[in-house]
Design goal:
Elements: H1 13-27, E1 39-45, E2 47-49, E3 55-63, E4 66-70, E5 75-80, E6 87-88, E7 93-97, H2 100-128, H3 134-159, E8 162-164, E9 169-174, E10 181-182, E11 187-192, E12 199-205, H4 207-212, E13 218-223, E14 226-238, E15 249-255, E16 267-273, E17 280-284, E18 290-292, E19 295-301, E20 308-319, E21 322-327, E22 334-338, E23 349-354
Parallel strand pairs: 1-23
Antiparallel strand pairs: 1-22, 2-17, 3-12, 3-16, 4-11, 5-7, 5-10, 6-9, 7-8, 9-11, 12-15, 13-14, 13-16, 14-15, 17-21, 18-19, 19-20, 20-21
Helix pairs in contact: 2-3
């Protein structure tokens, strides 16, 4: 099957009609036959197919485990221990802030907790001697609890004043340098957990193609880095709404790496085979007399084998030198391919044979 597919139902019909006229000229005289003579024509048997349209798109390989790593708190970057392209292991220290301020906050919180604990102990002793009230004891206990949680927060922030690798992978980008001030949550490193081997391709499809695609549909993938190999994939994500900026629907295809080394940014071409199929009629492209968008006209012989009918058809898709017809040829067995440039609905014709069969 010819796998070069147009991803839209619209195609240059003017060029297609021109192709049909050239075919006529190749097989017959370039001039119109005399009006009193039948026009010689060739016919082609139509075929039906249950195959779905193959959709072709392109995109860049990415990883589901790609992450933009940042510090939880703001501060001056003290050290960055990795470079772009470095391979790292889970838990490896990648970058750290200057800890002078955060260490002081931890020490301050620790001192506040010690004071709160002393105050609570003193309040309990006074309460036993009936000098302090129950309210004073409860307030001292609350202060101890608050100071304990403040110390826990300070230590948590101290822990996340460092960036560590969450898994084995590769550093894709270093976005900041030592000595720069990093705000809380600002990306410092772009990390790809390639060890997960969860490679995907993300791209957008038109509304017509989105309507026939489903999660689980298969994909055949060609990667430019491996031009002689084909990879398999499956649709794992299908957006339920259009992208506001481009108007397309996001699709994600997960790729089976098949033991090959992949990397983010590799260009690839995908051919998607929707699971849903419908019965379509195939005709050669040269049989289309004229068309506009997804509608057109073809000619077929009447029962007398001398006169012709002009039939409107609805075009499903164009694939190579074949046109799939969704409606209009339900009871038609043959269409005229050669000589259509000379025909009108009042033409008298003389069949002179059949064209070559459709390309499979």
């Amino acid at each position: 099957m010819n796998t070069r597919i147009l991803s839209s139902l619209r195609f240059p019909l003017a060029a297609l009609i021109a192709f049909s006229l050239v075919r006529c000229g190749e097989n017959h005289a370039a001039t119109t036959p005399p009006a009193d003579e039948p026009i010689p024509v060739k016919l082609q048997s139509v075929t039906t197919t249950g195959e779905g349209k193959i959709l072709q798109y392109s995109g860049l390989i990415a990883s589901n485990s790609e992450a933009r790593l940042s510090f939880k708190i703001g501060g001056i970057i003290s050290r960055i221990y990795v470079k772009e392209g470095d391979h790292v292991v889970a838990g490896q220290l990648l970058a750290t802030l200057d800890l002078t301020e955060i260490n002081a906050q931890v020490q301050q919180a620790s001192q506040n907790l010690e004071k709160a604990q002393r105050d609570e102990t003193r309040a309990n002793n006074l309460y036993r001697d009936t000098v302090a009230s129950l309210e004073q004891v409860q307030n001292a206990h609350t202060q101890t609890t608050v100071s304990t949680e403040a110390l826990r927060i300070a230590r948590f922030n101290q822990q996340y004043a460092q960036i560590r690798a969450t898994a084995g992978g590769t550093i894709l980008q270093k976005l900041m340098n030592e000595g720069e001030y990093a705000s809380a949550g600002t990306a410092v490193l772009v990390f790809n957990g390639a060890a997960q081997n969860d490679w995907v391709v993300r791209f957008g499809v038109s509304d017509k193609d989105w309507a026939v695609l489903h999660k689980g549909d298969k994909a055949s993938i060609t990667i430019d880095a491996y031009p002689d190999e084909r990879f398999t994939g499956v649709i794992t994500k299908l957006a339920e709404g259009a992208d506001a900026s481009g108007g397309t629907y996001a699709v994600e295809v997960t790729i089976a790496a098949a033991g090959r080394k992949l990397a983010p940014g590799l260009f690839c071409t995908l051919q998607l085979q929707p699971a849903g199929k419908r019965s379509l009629t195939l005709i050669p492209a040269s049989a289309l007399a004229e068309g506009d968008g997804n509608t057109g006209f073809v000619y077929t012989l009447n029962a007398d084998k001398r006169t012709v009918r002009r039939l409107p058809v609805r075009i499903a898709w164009l694939q190579g030198d074949r046109i799939a017809i969704a409606a209009g040829l339900d009871t038609v067995r043959e269409v005229i391919t050669d000589g259509i440039g000379f025909l009108t609905e009042k033409s008298v014709v003389r069949p002179i044979g059949h064209s070559d069969s459709l390309t499979k």
